[in-house]
Amino acid sequence: MGVTPTNTTERSRRRVRAEHLRLDNDVEVHSHDVVELALVRDGRAVQRSADDVTDIRSGHVLILTPGTRHSLESNCLLTTNVFLDPTLFVDELSWITKVPGWGAAFSPQSRVPRPVLILDADDRTAQLAELFDELAAGTGRSRDLGIGIFEQYALLFAAFSVLEPLVSDTVNSREERSYRATVELAVEVMSNNLDHPWTLGSLAAKVALSPSQLSRVFVADTGSSPMSYLQTLRVERLASLLRTTELSISGAARAVGWHDPGHAARRFRSRWQCSPNQYRERFR
After folding, report:
1. From CA 189, how far away is CA 200, in angstroms rounded?
2. Going residue by residue through the chain (284 aa), what tens digit of pLDDT does each one get?
3. How many helices and strands (H and E) does the chain possess?
């Protein structure tokens, strides 16, 4: 996660590499050119990405694909990291990206950087730690003394086997939403018209429900009220505009329906824990 003691030439010779890292200081925003699996062994940190702000602790596994940008705030974090050349998932391990859930987690082909995938290993932590330790012990030696390619892949597949249900469950829970038609329509209407001054009543009229009916089915499907969901859509769209356009901060805020800059800044900070200007500087 941003700390790479071996040089680039040496790293390029090895398609699977693992090492133990100790982070004693914050790690500024950086991107990755490999697929990285990081098992947190000890300590805590705040991980910031363009998509989220997350508390990281012992037992978490972070999966990052090429192009992913994030930062870490911690005064002591111990991890074991496995670095995988992305060409592995184009060549001999390409079939893995066809496994349900795993394509979304590991495929290096996407042109849009994915969010950091964070898994809670829980009671699988010790098993993963043992496998990661063996990979680090083998790939950390010279190439002449390191573990053979078959043993290396066996350890890697054993780690994938431990992670498989966690990856599938996490990715599927993100992607397979079963909203009823009226809720999907309400989300679509809001998403396509974020600058509209929505009220619960006006949104309910759009989907031909009473306000109380819309609130009931919306909370049942999303776990959030329609107006809270709207604020989430607005703050996420604002973040996207800050990353991808030259709009001024006030102009981007107006584009998502917030005409009071102070209100927009407060909403934004409550979600991303930084100001819109700080966010733009970090993630552009």
Report:
1. 13
2. 544 444 433 433 468 889 999 999 998 888 777 889 999 999 999 998 877 788 999 999 999 888 788 889 988 999 999 999 888 888 888 888 887 777 767 765 554 556 788 999 989 999 999 999 999 987 654 444 456 778 888 999 999 999 988 887 776 655 545 578 899 899 999 999 999 999 999 999 999 999 999 999 999 888 889 999 999 899 989 988 998 899 999 999 999 999 999 999 999 998 888 899 998 988 77
3. 11, 8
What the block records as the tokens of 137 is: 């012990």
Buried b (16+ CB within 10 A) or exposed e, 24-62: eeebebeebebbbbbbbbebebebbbbbeebebeebbbb
Taking the C-alpha atoms of 18, 22, 27 and 33 in order, what is their torsion angle to the nearest 10 degrees? -10
Q: Could you give the count of Cα atoms lying within 13 Å of 27 in the half-sphere of its Cβ?
A: 22
**DSSP-H helix ranges across 140-274:** 149-175, 181-192, 200-206, 211-222, 226-244, 249-255, 261-272
pTM across the whole model: 0.66
CA–CA distance, 140 with 68 (Å, rounded to integer): 25
140, with CB counted inside 10 A (0-12, 13-18, 19+), is middle
Both tokens of residue 209?
Answer: 């429900």
Please name which of 275, 251, 273, 255 lies closest in space to residue 265, comparing C-alpha atoms.
Answer: 275
